[in-house]
Amino acid sequence: MDDTSPASAPDKSAPAKTSLVRARIRQLTTPWWRLVWLIGGLVWAVVFNVIYVTSGGTQEWLGVASVVPIALLLVDLLRVERLERAAEQKRQAALKKLG
Global pTM? Predict the structure, then answer.
């Protein structure tokens, strides 16, 4: 290809790939209640860890309780990702069947 030839137009049929980081941030912030859950979970963790540290680390249950909301959010995200992966595999199988 020489310098005078026109650049090829991008293929409009292929969807643009989003970065993995953008996809993860989108998963964490949509729908709106996940963002609230994330912020609330972080506040929850900080509060419980501060109480744990200021009490001399004698109540171990505070450390465990501090991670419960974040752990539940991650379980929900893994569930959604598994469902999306299964849907994508179904779409791929349907395309192979048609093609």
Answer: 0.64
